[in-house]
Every structure is written in structure tokens, then in C-alpha cells.
Design a protein that fits this description.
With 68 residues, the protein is of the alpha+beta class. 19% of the residues lie in helices and 56% in strands. The protein contains 1 helix and 3 strands. The protein has a 3-stranded antiparallel sheet with strand order 1-3-2, with helices on one face. The longest helix has 13 residues.
């Protein structure tokens, strides 16, 4: 196995549906411009409330990827 060097990128994903969709949205968006994504760390979870109900979820993720 060769040695790898990694970098982490912090990004916030959101979804009106679920926390899981918010993470998937963050990864999908990052994948548009970042190659070699290897893992995701979910750092924070929060939700926006409107009219006393959860309107959407937000997750702060650190996305790890290998450098070329």
C-alpha cells in the first residue's frame, strides 16, 4: 500500500428532508470540483425552524480527499 497525503475541506450541506440527504448533498456538490473523496466527518448538525417546525436540516461536514 502506498503512502497517501490527505486534505480536509469544510462544507455545509442542507436538505428539507433529512440529515442524511444534507450529507449526501454536501458530498455531491463537493464532488463536482474535488477528486478522490475518501471520507466524510459530520461535525455539526442543526436545523432551521419556521412556524415552530423544522424547515430544513444543515450539517457541517469535513470531507477528506487524497492529493494527486
Amino acid at each position: 500500500m502506498s503512502a497517501h497525503v490527505y486534505k480536509k475541506l469544510e462544507i455545509v450541506g442542507s436538505s428539507a428532508t433529512s440529515i442524511e440527504d444534507a450529507v449526501n448533498n454536501a458530498v455531491a456538490k463537493a464532488a463536482e470540483s474535488v477528486r478522490n473523496i475518501r471520507w466524510v466527518e459530520v461535525e455539526e448538525t442543526r436545523c432551521h425552524v419556521e412556524d415552530q417546525k423544522v424547515a430544513y436540516w444543515q450539517v457541517t461536514c469535513k470531507i477528506g480527499f487524497t492529493l494527486d
